[in-house]
Predict the structure.
Amino acid sequence: MTQTTDGKASNDSFTLIDNRTGKQVTLPVLPGSTGPSVIDIRKLYSETGHFTYDPGFTSTGSCESKITYIDGDEGVLLHRGYAIDELADNCDFPEVCHLLLNGHLPNAKEKAEFETTIRYHTMVHEQLSRFFSGFRRDAHPMAVLCGVTGALSAFYHDSTDITDPRQRQIASHRLIAKMPTIAAMAYKYNMGQPFMYPRNDLSYAENFLYMTFGTPCEPYKVNPILSKAMDKIFILHADHEQNASTSTVRLAGSSGANPFACIAAGIASLWGPAHGGANEAVLKMLEEIGSVDRIPEIVRRAKSKDDSFRLMGFGHRVYKNYDPRAQVMRQTCHEVLAELGIKDEPLLDIAMELERIALSDEYFIEKKLYPNVDFYSGIILKAMGFPTSMFTVLFAVARTVGWISQWKEMIEDPQQKIGRPRQLYTGETKRPFVPLAERG
Ligand code: SDX
């Protein structure tokens, strides 16, 4: 009998019958603590000679995990069992980082120790600053973030031995701590402004805003409403089960690659407009729409089978209900705009009208396409002064703790092995070689 890593098993099973031969194969079912059970198909190929086929892995569990659980139909998101809205309303980002990485909410002593550990890893090696000068000033900050993060493995040889728990922990702390610093440096480099060193008297979110928007010319006072909104945005983007970028980190890590290289791979995947790049794409879409009068035409295009256009910020591979993060983000959006005294933000008017129309349109209702986390985040970040090119960078800063927590869980999973999916081959079968002289 097969079982989960903590010994859960069941007597449930599925029996497959080969209709050509009548041969039967019984496959065990593994139960989760909640959500769908899984049919354990690890013996399928050896017993049937068949692979499963599931492009995009929409029905495939790639691993066992205890970190995040999503119920797409109910619009539920739990991190180690805690609901995302309760975490967003009652915790700060370092607390959620501790929860994701270590499996429990820290007590006061643990919280103080964790914050101190992260704080004293926020600086990057001085030599790394020179790395930026190799990029054009107008390089996309995601390209810079991807390159510089991968380069961290050239600076921290003392934390790339993935078999050493202590090195895994140091690498995790370094990545969580340094991502905001590198992200802010990418922004400063793009702006042609000097890098700002992190300050140890500021919180994680305050430090990021300080390093991004502060200058050496005058004191920079962090707006507490904005730092709280930034902290909340980090919490809402921290982790999200086995999404494309997290699966990329796991697959890269399964070969034994060092954690810095794995996170760089995750950044590359997140950059795509169908994934983390959607928040930037939402703003571009709202700016292209330009006025609420054009929304009916845009909705018509989104519904048309003959048009590849999709409404950025709508739909989700898993949520077939409202993304719970979007609900919290919507509220934060209004708080930030009110704090900044932004009343007639045309992009927000377009966004709200687009949401109203989409949520009442039969196509979106039938296909269960709701606003996702990216729909509102772009508006908030624009109001806070970030250029659209930085939106996905902020997503990557937040998601680093999710990626590294999932990477650590994979490395510590006794069932872990190198990822090696198979395929359905429909190409040429073996054919005789044709020498160059005989090719027509
Ligand atoms: C993130 O995986 C994660 O958890 C990701 C993420 C995370 O935190 O890591 O949540 C972050 O990536 C959120 C998603 C951000 N992307 C966007 O907002 C881009 C716009 N959304 C779409 O590209 C799309 O909705 C996806 C990629 C998110 C999901 O695509 P799927 O899996 O193909 O969606 P689906 O199978 O549920 O689609 C059902 C139907 C399809 O039509 P039919 O083939 O059935 O006729 O709905 C259509 C789709 O064509 N559809 C849309 C649409 N999204 C899906 N039609 C118009 N506009 C859209 N946005």
